[in-house]
Automatic annotation (TrEMBL):
GO terms for biological process: DNA recombination. This is Recombination-promoting nuclease RpnD. The gene is rpnD_9. Keywords: Hydrolase. GO terms for molecular function: double-stranded DNA endonuclease activity. It comes from Candidatus Cardinium hertigii. The lineage of its organism: Bacteria, Pseudomonadati, Bacteroidota, Cytophagia, Cytophagales. Pfam families: Transposase_31 (PF04754).
Length: 237
């Protein structure tokens, strides 16, 4: 997995400046004490390597909604609402899109009702983010005109809870980022201080060695450098 991460990072780095990805030859130099038995390709990590390679290594499946007619989309039992809204989400009048959704997707709406309006909640969450703030109340009115008050309240309450949770998560992430920045800065300062301390200590030792060569007494060297007399004596060995 780590090898694939490196390969993808290299591809991502080169993709910024070029239209085509570079060819990368992965080479692993192993120097462990035991024989190497790890999988040689990512497919061997799956329970069914052949199926994994076929599903993930070949061309992905494409569902181009723009090439599918509205009639074909609306005939689907479960995905009609999802695909219809996603196909037309870029239109300016999202409120009218929701009106059409309720009008043309009656069967899918009944199926979604049995599942607690999972689909409707997801679509409201998705389209609500694309609506100007002044039109968000209008979207709630469109929904309430097709569903009961209780159902509308449940759906909108779920959306509100998601906004609250999203805000809470953003606050947590921002707090973590600030904490990491402070920690990194503190670690950097500690590293500088430790480096300076090590440099000073090394300098004292070099001075002590030079003084010993010139015949200075251990007690005198200890007064000059601040080093322990036993340690200075060990430098003579």
């Amino acid at each position: 997995m780590r090898l694939w991460k490196y390969l993808l990072l290299l591809c991502e780095r080169n993709r910024k400046n070029k239209n085509r990805l570079p060819l990368i030859c992965p080479i692993v130099i192993y120097h462990g004490s035991k024989p190497y038995h790890a999988p040689r390709n990512i497919w061997q990590l799956f329970s069914n390597p052949e199926q994994a390679q076929k599903l993930m290594g070949e061309e992905y499946q494409l569902i181009d909604l723009q090439s599918i007619s509205d009639d074909a989309i609306l005939q689907k039992k479960h995905l009609a609402m999802f695909e219809y809204l996603l196909k037309h989400i870029h239109k300016r009048d999202i409120l009218k899109l929701w009106e059409n959704l309720f009008t043309h997707c009656q069967h899918a709406l009944l199926v979604d009702k049995e599942k607690g309006y999972i689909c409707i909640k997801a679509l409201v969450w998705y389209s609500d983010a694309k609506l100007p703030e002044e039109k968000q109340a209008a979207l709630e009115r469109v929904i309430s005109s097709h569903l009961s008050k209780e159902e509308t309240a449940t759906i909108m309450r779920t959306i509100a809870q998601k906004y609250i949770e999203e805000g809470r998560q953003q606050g947590i992430m921002q707090g973590m980022e600030k904490g990491m920045e402070k920690g990194m800065e503190k670690g950097r300062q500690q590293g500088i201080m430790q480096g300076m301390e090590k440099g000073i200590e090394k300098g004292k030792i070099e001075i002590a060695k030079a003084m010993l060569v010139h015949g200075a007494k251990v007690s005198f060297i200890a007064k000059i450098t601040g080093l322990d007399t036993a340690f200075i004596a060990s430098l003579q060995l």
